[in-house]
Amino acid sequence: MRTFLLAMLFALAAPLTAQAQSADLVLCDRLAADPSDPDKPADVKGVAEIASADIATAVKFCKQAANASRRAMFELGRAYAANRQTAEAIAAWRKAADKGSSAAMVELGVLYGTGAGVAKDETQARKLFERAAQAGNPRGVSNLAALGGAGGAAPADPAQARALLGKAAETNAEAQYQLGLMLSEGDGGAKDDVAARALFEKAAAQNHPGALERMGAFAREGRGGAKDKDAAKAYYERAAALGDEDAKKALERIRCPYAIKDKQGRLVTTLCF
After folding, report:
1. What contacts 136, CB < 8 A, 6 or more positions away?
2. At what angle are helices 173-185 and 209-221 packed, to 10 degrees?
3. Full-model pTM
4. 3-class SS string, 17-85
5. How confident is the model over 160-219, as pLDDT tens digits?
6. What is residue 261's DSSP assignment?
7. Which three-class secondary structure state does DSSP give residue 177?
8. Are the beta carbons of 88 and 62 closer than 8 angstroms?
9. From CA 142, how far away is CA 233, in angstroms rounded?
10. d(Cα 69, Cα 74) in Å, to the nearest integer?
């Protein structure tokens, strides 16, 4: 009888524990998920930056969820980084990268590439970006291409970056955005505003801030499709609401379109509507 009761208690405790861990991960995701993280579930919006008021809560719940989730470990690193705890962020990202988090690989690569918090090491940055790119991470691909031939290594191949992004762009909003940028600028191949606009539109439909801003610019200028100032403003407003600074500046230019300058060409004031 005692054995039966113990078995029943363990059976009941297991789902409760799983539920508690799941709740921690849900809260961690809500406060600290990265919109560009391929590990992020589609129904999780993510935040470009963790709000200062949410940092302590994010650290608490991400730390509780991190042992069972590499995504939570990566998000814990984001929370530490937002709190300027660089050493703790690096430690969390290393653990997440060891578990296969390509988003953590990218963040570590950025640190090594810039020398922020660690000794600058472009060779190590390249290795991390390559690992992330091979895992299909769009930022890994674009950062690898941006690193170029620094440190005596062979130059990054923009055409290959396009190909890698093309595969990831089938399902990933960040890849759609990055590939759209390459197409719109003619990096790694022919310039194609129509294809770029289509990719930005796909990513914008998933509330990607950068893609929404680009759709605003394309609609305003009539690049790759119809010119529509009302649609442009709507796209800018959605991007600005998600924190995109370029979109905020674009809205200000729409609101204040006329600049008055002195004889030396210096701005005196703007006329706003």
Report:
1. 38, 102, 164, 167, 168, 172, 175
2. 40
3. 0.66
4. HHHHHHHHHHHHHHHHCCCCCCCCCCCCCCCCCCCHHHHHHHHHHHHHHHCCCHHHHHHHHHHHHHCCC
5. 788 878 877 887 888 899 899 999 999 889 999 999 999 999 999 989 999 999 999 999
6. E
7. helix
8. no
9. 28
10. 9
